[in-house]
Amino acid sequence: MSSARMLTGDRPTGRLHLGHYVGSIANRVRLHQRYESFFIIADLHMLTTRNSREDIEQVARNAREMVTDILAAGVEPDRATFYLQSAIPEVGDLNTLLQNLVTVPRLERVPSLKEMSRDAGKEEMPYGLLGYPVLQAADILCVKGQVVPVGKDNAAHVEVTREIARRFNHLYGEVFPVPELIMSETSTLVGTDGSGKMSKSKGNAVALSDDPATVHRKVMGMYTDPNRVRADVPGTVEGNPVFAYHDVFNPDREQVAELKARYRAGRVGDVEVKEALAVALNRFLDPVRERRARFEAQPGLVDELIFAGTERTRAEVHRTLVEVRRAMGLTSAYTQVRRRAERYRKAVAAPA
């Protein structure tokens, strides 16, 4: 395993789905064998769009589910450090120091922020959401992450991190590595309803933890070619969610090619195409379910992984913050004040 570090993670808003898998988890599973890997449970980022007491009360449970999903997908617990973002206050300290190295117009050019605000039903963008990329920079740089696997949505965020790292190093000396983006092969997955990307909030997702019957039900209800009213009508494969899923999850390329040819020729019905997809998805998810069952059979194990990982990460972040403050000269300012105060106290305490 390389000594280089990878930082990745998710907001604890519920169970992970196939969109997460193709967007980032598949990359994480592959890369965590090569890099020292930190997995952030980004509950502070969650607060930018979901900050009710009810949302916050669900963090522990959602964190447990999220980590279990990641482990079930193939990440080995002894090669990953999971940590809870809000349990490390030093991350907030670093965020405060870094936010002065980027301008408001630069953040306003990050395309996904307006989309996130709109999806959350916000009429106006919260201050914290505008600063989301800066806090993300603090997350990456606090553990000196060198590799960040991302989907298309987060690429612009990590580019802000790269700019902040270069700006800090230019002003105060070489402290941070400039992280490298590693893009996933399939950046997004369309939802089962065909309306945009797969999303928990839209109810158009297939969860990694769904049982076979649930997967079958969701697949049979998937959106297909709206112009195809009968099986003998030639259909469109391009942009058809069912075939998009076949392309990603069905390893039987000969079957996929045959179904596409018959679909275009009007010689196969949607039901047969969907039945084949349900079989393929359940074959893909079977080993994920088996791994999940093994971890769920050990109550408290995931909590232990999160707790131990958070303690380890906090120590790492503390060291980074000390280095950052020293490089900026902040420790020098307080040291000067402290020394003069100590001399004054001695003078006052000295006998006349």
Automatic annotation (TrEMBL):
It is an enzyme of class 6 (ligase). L-tryptophan binds at residue 139. Keywords: Aminoacyl-tRNA synthetase, ATP-binding, Cytoplasm, Ligase, Nucleotide-binding, Protein biosynthesis. GO terms for molecular function: ATP binding; tryptophan-tRNA ligase activity. The keyword ATP-binding applies. GO terms for cellular component: cytosol. It is found in: Cytoplasm. It comes from the Bacteria. It catalyses: tRNA(Trp) + L-tryptophan + ATP = L-tryptophyl-tRNA(Trp) + AMP + diphosphate + H(+). A motif ('HIGH' region) lies at residues 12-20. ATP binds at residues 11-13, 19-20, 151-153, 189, 197-201. The keyword Zinc does not apply. Its EC number is 6.1.1.2. A motif ('KMSKS' region) lies at residues 197-201. HAMAP family: Trp_tRNA_synth_B. Belongs to the class-I aminoacyl-tRNA synthetase family. Homodimer. Catalyzes the attachment of tryptophan to tRNA(Trp). This is Tryptophan--tRNA ligase. The gene is trpS.
